[in-house]
Specification:
Length: about 180
């Protein structure tokens, strides 16, 4: 189960060039925004990647506006996020501080998301893949990528499931603010 004191959120490549091209785009962007808003409310660190932003543009404005202050952005050309300069070091630093659960959201399911999840699991990281915050351009690629992530050992969860696991109890002081994100 997710623990807010052990979690970090990794948001992969939700960039402008993919606007209007993603399978179940509204669902995916909405779920990513919920996760980011909750991470900000709960003090969960966020790491952001951008795949070749010179060609694919920056992170979508509606996603970027939800980023907690000082969220680091790692530019990459590798498909796995672990190839982004500085990202592995930041993950290791966070793990030394007890942040050993990596909650994954982003695109594309069968490329950057699947390769990142495989690399994280190969590095013995606990990965939680947020199904409603992960997609690809085409349904088949999304489905196959999701199966690969699950078969690699990622724990499937939804954005709402993640939020309530982070809270654990309706008496948590952040409950009302988190609840407003899902109703």
């Amino acid at each position: 189960m997710l623990d807010r004191a052990r979690s970090l959120l990794l948001v992969i490549d939700l960039q402008e060039a993919y606007r209007g091209k993603l399978h179940e785009e509204e669902r995916t962007i909405g779920a990513a925004r919920r996760l980011l808003q909750a991470a900000g409310l709960l003090g969960i660190p966020v790491l952001l990647t951008e795949q070749y932003p010179k060609g694919l543009g920056a992170t979508r404005a509606e996603v970027a506006e939800c980023l907690p202050p000082d969220t680091p952005c790692f530019e990459k050309t590798s498909f796995s996020c672990l190839g982004a300069p500085g990202l592995q070091e930041r993950l290791s630093e966070l793990a030394r501080g007890g942040r050993d659960q990596i909650v994954v959201a982003g695109i594309e399911t069968h490329v950057c998301v699947a390769q990142t999840i495989q690399d994280l699991i190969d590095h013995r990281r606990e990965v939680h893949a947020v199904r409603d915050a992960i997609t690809a351009r085409f349904p088949l690629d999304d489905a196959i990528g999701w199966e690969r992530a699950r078969s690699a050992g990622a724990h499937p969860i939804t954005s709402e499931g993640a939020l309530f696991e982070w809270l654990r109890d309706a008496r948590a002081p952040e409950f009302k603010a988190i609840h407003r994100l899902v109703v």
